[in-house]
Amino acid sequence: MRLTDLWLNLKPRKTVWVALAAICLACTLLLLFYEYEGIPLAINRHSTHNQPTTPPPSILDPENSAATPPASNNDYQSNQYNPSNAVSGDRRCQAFSDPGNVVFVIKTGATEVYEKLPTQLLTTLGCVQDFLLFSDLDERIGPYRLRDTLAGFNETLKETLPDFELYRMQHEFRRTGQDMASLKGEKAWKLDKYKFLHLVEQAWLERPGRDWYFFIETDTYVVWTNLILWLQRVSPPTNPLYLGSVAYFMNDPFAHGGSGIVISGKLLEQFIGSEPGLAGRYDDAFEQNCCGDSVLANTIRKELDIQVQNMWPQINGEKPTTLSFGPMQWCQPVVTMHHLHPRERTAIFDFEQARPDLTTPLTFAELSQIPFPRTNPREIEEDWDNLSNVRIAFAGQAEITKDTCRDACLGLERCFQWRFNSDGECDVSTETFRLGGKKLPDGDGENAKRWFSGWNVELIERWRAENECKEVEWVNPH
Ligand SMILES: *[C@@H]1O[C@H](CO)[C@@H](O)[C@H](O)[C@H]1NC(C)=O
Ligand SMILES: CC(=O)N[C@H]1CO[C@H](CO)[C@@H](O)[C@@H]1O
């Protein structure tokens, strides 16, 4: 019998009411007592999760025994679990607390972690109770534990592949106390791709049996409200699902990693099974491929014959300044964005916190207020590329200036923005509006090439008013 049945079966008999009243009174008194005595009542929802069922793997590293304390019974020192990151003042978590059926997996690297992870922890992850941090070096930041995703990678390949030079250097840098941030760049990007399969395997093996596995990077932004609302609509997943924003390598589709990859537990159960092994069998597949996310897709296809399903634009690789707002991206909820600098991340976070109702989905339409605010909109910027993309040809005109370009745009029936450069080239956008960013002059002095951009703020405002979202358009996998 369920609780609700029990409740319904209760005949309103006097004795029952008296008994209930007595219980209520007793509970209230008990609460008051606990409050008074300062006994913590808050139950950490993950305190049960946080009891490792298997002993944590040893993180002892002979060359690093000073930096990494030996595993002990002290939870803080030894556990493979991060402390809950939920912040009580965060309005997003007041609207929706962590549903507990999603494993958040964040991929990073030792050269970027101090630059990018803190803001990720302070913003997107501010409502997440349970998450895993995967890097290319075993280390700790305060209470957070970062794992070396490549620890189990084929040793022969690790020693011989040129792309692993950074991996070897990071250990040397740590031994000699040098700043690993100075190693960031292309080498880190090349090493990163080798992590994808071990990442997925370890995430599943450490948190088997959850509904969803959500793989993001340190510069991915997640709109919490939208993620929760979306997953509520499709949970529990009964099928093996592999969802993301589709990109291609050699005509083969894959879910783009930076935009975030969502995989159902049902898929990983079949893909990984109950012990490590799958990832190691494909260690030699990465060198020839541009991208680790592509190898992941190929491997899922090969092993399970399952294709990625496209969730674009809900899962998105752009951010407020680079998004093309317009008919294609307007009434859908935006779940992820990519390439966010820490300050841009904070700006969206603040925007979210200031929304009147955080239980309603945040659409692209609403998000467009960040780059295109109603009050004080930008009309023109010098040394700016607005990413306009339709070239305007001026037949037989002597000199083309930025005013000619602006007037040409304003003279069109629908033109959202224009861009002019000092070579006399004029481009406009008639379908979408996009902010773009600073573009410094190319060259020195008089002869430097410069860019100017402007927006038809009146049209943007009118288009917005004419295209108010009456209903949120959730994206179906396609
Ligand atoms: C590691 O890779 C090498 C070269 O591809 C291969 O010969 C070897 O069997 C692999 N080792 C393991 C343990 O899989
Ligand atoms: C300066 C410049 O022209 N930048 C880019 C603006 O966007 C268009 C298309 O989106 C590109 O072709 C330009 O290179």
TrEMBL record:
<comment type="similarity">
    <text>Belongs to the glycosyltransferase 31 family. Beta3-Gal-T subfamily.</text>
</comment>
<keyword id="KW-1133">Transmembrane helix</keyword>
<feature type="transmembrane region" description="Helical">
    <location>
        <begin position="16"/>
        <end position="34"/>
    </location>
</feature>
<feature type="region of interest" description="Disordered">
    <location>
        <begin position="47"/>
        <end position="88"/>
    </location>
</feature>
<feature type="compositionally biased region" description="Polar residues">
    <location>
        <begin position="65"/>
        <end position="87"/>
    </location>
</feature>
<dbReference type="InterPro" id="IPR026050">
    <property type="entry name" value="C1GALT1/C1GALT1_chp1"/>
</dbReference>
<protein>
    <recommendedName>
        <fullName>Glycosyltransferase family 31 protein</fullName>
    </recommendedName>
</protein>
<keyword id="KW-0472">Membrane</keyword>
<keyword id="KW-0735">Signal-anchor</keyword>
<keyword id="KW-0812">Transmembrane</keyword>
